[in-house]
Amino acid sequence: MRWDDLFADLESQLEQELGAEELDVAAEEERLRLGRLTLRDRIVAFSGQQIVVELVEGTRVELRVEAIGRDWVSGAATGARAASCLVPLDAIAGLLAGATPVAGALEPTPERPDALSRRLGLSFVLRDLCRRRCPVDVTTASRALHGTIDRVGRDHVDLAEHDPGEPRRPGAVRAVRILPFAGIRMLRF
Questions:
Q1: What is the pLDDT of residues 79-131, one digit of tens each?
Q2: What are phi and psi of 9, to 5 degrees?
Q3: Domain-by-domain residue ranges, the chain?
Q4: Highest CATH level, class, for 40-188
Q5: Domain of life here (predicted)?
C-alpha cells in the first residue's frame, strides 16, 4: 500500500511540475508577443475608437482614430476645436484610452499585410493636402501656424502663412515657412 501512495505522490508532483512548466512557456510566449508590438500596432487596435493623444510638448487631443499610415495617425478631433487631425507617430508622447482597458487593445487588429495605408508615409498625406489646397493649422514644437501647404519635399513642407478664413492669394501670404517633418506635431484641416 505504501508503494501505491509513493507512486501517486510522485505522479502528482510530476503533473504539477509539467503544469507549471506549461504556464511558464505560455507566459514567455506572451511576453515575446507583446515585445513585438509597435506603437502603430497599438493604435490600429483602437481603430474607430476615441482616444486621447498626448503630444511631446504636452498638448492633448481627443481623437477618434480613422486612418493609420506607416508613420502617422488621423481622425476626427473632438472638443472645442473639432476638425480632421493628422498626427505623426514621432510626435506622440502617450495615449490614453480611458480608465479601463479597451477590449483587444493589446491585440493588433487583423490588417492585411499588403494594406495600402500601412505603406503610406506622412509625405503622401501632406502631398494630398497640398494638391487639395486645404488651409491647415500646423502645430510645431514652438508655435501654432495657419496657412496652405505649397510644396512637399522628402522631409519638409513649405507653408504659405496667411490669416484664417482667407484663401491663399499672393497678397494674403505673409511668409513662406519651411517646416521639417520632424518639427511638425499636428495638423488640423
A1: 766 689 999 999 999 999 864 444 455 555 555 555 777 889 999 999 999 99
A2: -65, -45
A3: 2-36, 40-188
A4: mainly beta
A5: Bacteria
Sign of the CA dihedral running 76, 66, 185, 172: negative
CA 131 to chain centre: 24
Which of 156, 187, 141, 150 minimizes the C-alpha distance to 172? 150
* Cell numbers for 172: 494674403
d(CA 37, CA 60): 23
Q: How far apart are CA 72 and CA 89, in angstroms?
A: 5
Q: What is the mean pLDDT of the chain?
A: 86
How many Å from the N-terminal Cα to the C-terminal Cα in the chain?
Answer: 82
Predicted confidence (pLDDT) per residue in 130-163, tens digit = 999 999 999 998 999 999 999 999 999 999 999 9
